[in-house]
Amino acid sequence: MNRWGGALVMLFVGSGAAALIYEIVWLQMLQLVIGSSAVSVGLLLGVFMGGMCLGSLLLPRAIDGQRHPLRVYAALECTIAVCGLVLLAAIPALGRLYVTWAAGTFGLFLRALVAVLCLLPPTIAMGATLPAVARGVGTTRDGVEWLGWFYAGNIAGAVCGSLVAGFYLLRVYDMTVATITAVAINLLVAVGALVIARQNSQHSPSPEPRSLIPDPRSLISRVTIYVAIALSGFCALAGEVVWTRLLGLLFGATVYTFSIVLAVFLIGLGVGSACAAAFARSDRQPRLAFAGCQLLLVAAMAWTAHKLLVSYPYWPISPAMSPSIWMNVELDFLRALWALLPPALLWGASFPLALAALSGPRTDGGRLVGTVYAANTIGAVAGALAASLVLVAWLGSQRVQQLMMVASALAAFAALTPVFVGEARGLRRASFVVLTVGLVAAVLLVPTVVPLPAILVAYGRFTPTVLGQAGDMLYVGEGLTSSVAVSRLPNGRLGYHNAGKIQASSEPQDMRLQRMLGHLTTLVPRQSASVLVIGCGAGVTAGAAAIDPAVERLTIAEIEPLVPKVVSTYFAAQNHDVVHNPKVRIAIDDARHYLLTSRERFDAITSDPLDPWVKGAATLYTREFFETVKDHLAPGGVVTLFVQLYESNLDAVKSEVATFFEAFPDGIIAGNTFRGVGYDMVLLGQAGPPRIDLGVIDARIHRPEYAAVMRSLEEVGVRSTVDLFATYAGRAVDLKPWLADAAINRDSNLRLQYLAGLGLNLTDSDRIYGEILKYRRFPEDLFTGPEPLIHALRARMIDERPGG
């Protein structure tokens, strides 16, 4: 079958492309169901990779060597295609069942069950593909070389799949189209495998080995390679987790950045595997070469750490200067390649070298590949879960990278251990030299990894432009889902930083928005005993809502534990010390998952999530999520939503507004301006026909018990009911012409994160707000109350009309 090796490599390219498309789509779909908290994402990743590990182990043991390997391969590809189609319908159905039963500890069990039911069948088939074909090429030197090429081809396809899915299929179409594309690729690969099988029908079954490796090598000789390749997998996935977070700060945490990082990582793995496959054919000491790779990884990881923590943050680059986001994408791709390629190449080379170190003339290729692949995957699962759920939050990215370097040195030591207990003296001397040089280098290089720069956490991609004027960093922390910081700005005000930018501050324009958001939420409905705040941030919005005397209980849903625990305490003076308010309960959970699994109804809900260009944030702006919000509102209840105009573009803002208005067709917009320029907005919707009684609200805020509310409003320049509602900027019925071409953000496409990711470096807020104001008319049927208040509000809106 080796004469068909080139064609088989191309089949593995297709197989890898389909697998990555599926991975992106399935994880995205399942996060909509079980949440995007660190625990949920960890479960999904663990099950996905665990399924591939099981497949690689089980196939050689479940299917005997008499079957033609390419027919087995074709059957596996067809199985994956069927699973892909089934999951399109099954995941939403399981989601409805899940939200019916999920609660507490039982809910965590259900999350795992949903992940297993959805991901295990197809990923077992994915993991079995390489061991299936391995039986047909043997484990001679030629065979091991082809196995390396198959692995490299699979990774090359994965690169294509990640880029096509992230930059085209999901940006332009949706998850259904992406899935059908992957299904079509699987079926083409299956047909290709069957055609080659027909041309190569004389299959010689693999010998039944007496052991995994029948030559007289000791058990310890084999086990040490398995341990070393597992450590290599651990470091590779831990590195991907840590470096993806760092590059998210450097480039902006968009879907495009994540696609770039994944593609670059896979490019390195593929090229490294291909080079090692060719090298393994002529190398007489693959064990020594494998160990050398692990020691070189120590230097490679030091290189990457230096680029990401010492060099890149201070490159004199301003992303806002580029006339096109695609120029930034190109630059980010090249920078990611320069930083990540060295370790990725060496991790890619490790797999074929490990195969070569274990192969023998009568080795069962399926069992050899399956066992090595399983060991590598077990280490990878451990690395991904440990880094994302424990190590980064516990030790910090500096210590995790140092731990990875130590683990690579240990992998080299493990691989060469048998050399010192029975191998040839010449090889023993060479191994001693390699280990000595490598371990000395490790001792010297590990301390070179520096802590995460505070200014990078605070300002991300704009770090070079704020050097010398960033203020004092009061707190920097790396949490489960993000890195956060609190700063005292040069003017003495406070800033809360997340995703590499200021998310909230005590600046006048930010305080005005946050207070408006909180007070509109509780003042507009006739009753506001129960309130839900989505996103804690600096706590100012929650604090504004909590001081309303009508509020009896307030729940804050926040995904990052550090935010309410640490960040909001720095803003205690601005947020009325909300986290210690006895009315307040904090739920550490993805807000979407919290609402889906809650049976509670609220009188008011306010949402102030991260920027919509941050990967995953768009799930809180979908039509389906807004319908879920509506279902959790009590009769007459109100929902408010923060919409930013800065660092955004017209298409993204239109998508946010139009999607909200589809769920709340009588919704309105309140604008927040800064120095006469549009800055951001609040969308407001009600469960039922909207009516805002100015007289009732005016009487309420002038009661003695509302003195704190009135002070809170006055501190941001709102001194009366008229001041508060003069921010009215438009409503759904008037804005229909403007929103005619808006893209609706749905669970099936998450279109907003792709649109918003193209505008994160823009400063176009005033033009966008000006377009909205062109459609503003005084809503005669919206505001009710005493005529003097109505007249005063109408006069204010006329005075503040565009150009007035």
Write down how many β-strands occur, each being a DSSP E stretch of 2 or more residues: 14
User: What CATH architecture of the largest domain would you give?
Assistant: 3-Layer(aba) Sandwich
Estimated radius of gyration = 29 Å
State the distance separating the first and last CA atoms: 80 Å
Q: What is the overall pLDDT average?
A: 89
Q: Would you tell me which CATH topology of the largest domain applies?
A: Rossmann fold
Which strand order spans the largest sheet, edge to edge or round the barrel?
7-6-5-8-9-11-10-13
Low-pLDDT segments, ≥5 res: 207-217
Beta-strand fraction estimate: 5-15%
> Per the principal axes of the C-alpha atoms, what is the gross shape?
elongated
**Largest beta sheet, briefly?**
8 strands, mixed
Q: How many independent structural domains?
A: 4
Q: What's the name of the CATH homologous superfamily of the largest domain?
A: Vaccinia Virus protein VP39
Structural class: alpha/beta
Instruction: Tell me the number of helical segments per DSSP (H or I, 4 or more residues long).
Output: 27
Write out key terms for the chains shown.
Growth Hormone, Chain: A; 4 domains; four-stranded antiparallel beta sheet; 27 helices; about 800 residues; alpha/beta; elongated; eight-stranded mixed beta sheet
Question: Any overview of this molecule?
Answer:
With 804 residues, the protein is an alpha/beta fold. It folds into four domains: 1-201, Growth Hormone, Chain: A (Up-down Bundle), CATH 1.20.1250; 220-451, Growth Hormone, Chain: A (Up-down Bundle); 454-498, no CATH class; 507-799, Vaccinia Virus protein VP39 (Rossmann fold, 3-Layer(aba) Sandwich), CATH 3.40.50. Helices cover 61% and strands 10% of the residues. The chain contains 27 helices and 14 strands. α1 (5-34) crosses α5, α4 (104-137) packs antiparallel against α11 (365-395) and α11 packs antiparallel against α12. The chain is elongated and about 95 Å long. The relative contact order is 0.09.
